[in-house]
Amino acid sequence: MKLTDVLQRLWSYLRVYRGQFILSILATIVQTFAQAIEPVILGLAITELSANVLDIVNGVPGAGINYSYIAWVCVLYFIRGMGFHGGQFIGQYALTNVVQKSMYDLRNDISNKASRIPVSYFDAHQTGDILARMTNDVDAITNALQQSFIQLLNAVLGIAFAITMMLILDWKLALILIVTIPISYFLAQIILKKSQTAFQQQADALGDLFGYTQEQLSGFTEIKVYGKQEESVSVFRDKNARLRDHGFKASFISSLMMPILGFVSNLAYAVTSVVGVLAVLAGRLTVGNLQAFVQYVWQINQPIQMITQLSGVIQSAIAASGRVFEFLDEEEEYQMPVSNTLPDKVAGAVEFDHVRFGYDPQNPLMTDISFSVNPGETVAVVGPTGAGKTTLINLLMRFYDVDSGAIKVDGVDIKTIPRSELRKHFGMVLQDAWLYTDNIMENLRFGDLEANDYEVMEAAQVANVHHFIQTLPGGYDMEINEEASNISLGQKQLMTIARAVLSDPDILILDEATSSVDTRLEQLIQSAMDNVMEGRTSFVIAHRLSTIKNADMILVMQNGNIIEHGNHEQLMAQDGFYADLYNSQFQKQEQPADIHMSY
């Protein structure tokens, strides 16, 4: 995205709170102005005191310290200090409110957008990249706005006010300092560019070293067995030396910033002092104004260093903003005009009527899929990897819409039904059991947030997991950790089945997850699945063909199309593709890892 587009989009969030935003800018202007007039106010006192001392030394009658004038300057300085600190507090407080509220709105928009984006987007993008846009990129914007904006505005205004005050005091002397501004900025940019490259190399070297170390530690036994300790240590030393060299280069180059810019500032300071003293001796400049000029040297060069240091942060924030707004601009799920509704409970009749679909419309995966399922029937879907089993379920759930044909539930075309209304009639138990960080009770209640504790426990009993939960520390109050690694895979699967039972769906979709568990647990999970399927229309993606012998209909898929269908006995009698798959599994029962179909 272009810089102007990014700034315009950011302003669309900030302008909602433009009153406080303008207040923060005005307060920052007051703060910066108060800082800019400090040298002039101090100069007034210094000029008066030097004149008083000179009069005393020269023996001028009645000469003395003008305490009333000095007191007046002190009061003026106090008022200036109140303005500086008050403006600083109000500006930061108001901007913090604006940034946090606007980023709150941005995060809400991202969350809402994620619920409207089609599944195809998540299929085509890495989860880590999406999470980075939602978290790291938004944090980069927040930090740049809250921490860098005020500093940047303060730096720009500080330079502008300092130059203005110097021009008012003595425009000839001011030219000396004005010339140093582009010199300082140019030198700082050179250093920053080279240091950023060096820091990136250091980060890459550090990541390489960490990755190698982790790899070697995880394979420590194999390294010992094959006697590769010397080679491992040698490679580590090389990578460690590379990190050392890049680290030295990055630190050294970045450390050059202050001495080089300090040299320019000191040079300007020296020239200003010499020329200023000559101006004082010539009577063109007072001692106090000379002191003010010296302070303005630092008030100009310090903001230049700050702007240079902030440029990298600002550039990162602009890049992050572009990534976030690209996500917000993604095409959303197409919403067809709603013309039908479903009753609160459906019988569960499902029909695929000449369905055609392809992830790429030019290369359809399914060309003509037709079958009917009566209410309460169990349909098993089998076939090799890439056959279209998951696609069939995705179309039924309207994660994708068909290119032609129709899918009907109780005779109603699902394209004419809002997705949210359609999906409330479905329950899914996926192969990858998902639990979130909370106690077991709340994880199960996810199936029906209105369910009471007794109903949750009843669902757990149906899913054959109630007894196991009671044996855990804390029972239903036990906390599931972040990776849900404090319970076994099989027990997680049973909990997701209990969640489906609690939701009481009219149509159930099961992606069997018994291939990686032992025989006893497989039987327990199968029993739980039989309980939840009872009386419901069910679709089962089968991994072990032995688990679907009692299905009312078995759909055998290959290359996106149904090549065989019927019950187990019918398909075995045909002695076709299904019979070959079934027989091949039971001919190698002693090698379970080889008999599972891949999906």
Automatic annotation (TrEMBL):
SUPFAM superfamilies: ABC transporter transmembrane region (SSF90123), P-loop containing nucleoside triphosphate hydrolases (SSF52540). Signal peptide: none annotated. GO terms for molecular function: ABC-type oligopeptide transporter activity; ATP binding; ATP hydrolysis activity. It is a multi-pass membrane protein. It comes from the Bacteria. Keywords: ATP-binding, Cell membrane, Membrane, Nucleotide-binding, Transmembrane, Transmembrane helix, Transport. Pfam families: ABC_membrane, ABC_tran. GO terms for cellular component: plasma membrane. Its main location: membrane. It is found in: Cell membrane. This is ABC transporter ATP-binding protein.
